[in-house]
Amino acid sequence: SINMAGCKATFCLLIFAIISRFPLFSSADEVLGCGGYVRSDVEINYSNVGIKLYTKQGNLKYETECAPNNGYYFMPLYDKGHYILKFLHYLTGLPSTWLEF
C-alpha cells in the first residue's frame, strides 16, 4: 500500500525543489536539448519522478524519467520554440503535483 502522507510530503518537496535546466544551443547538425537535475532537501526516490515536455498548445513532445542515482534528466529538442516542463511523481500520478515554469 502507498503511504499517502509520505507521498504528499514528497510532492510538497518536489514543488519547492531546486530545478536547474540548461538549453543547449547548437548549429544545424546538432540536437538542441533541455536537461538538469531535480533536487530535494530530503531523500527521495528519483526513479519515481517523470518529466514531460509540452508545447505551448499543450501537445506532448517528449517524456523521460530522472536518473535514479542523482535526479538528472535530459530531453532532445528537435524544434526551437517555447515549451512547458511538467514534473510528476509516479506513485500517485496526480496532475496537481506538476511543476510548470
From TrEMBL:
Keywords: Signal. InterPro entries: NOMO-like_N. Pfam families: NOMO1-like_1st. Residues 35-86 form the NOMO-like N-terminal beta-sandwich domain. Residues 1-28 form the signal peptide. This is NOMO-like N-terminal beta-sandwich domain-containing protein. It comes from Cherax quadricarinatus (Australian red claw crayfish). The lineage of its organism: Eukaryota, Metazoa, Ecdysozoa, Arthropoda, Crustacea.
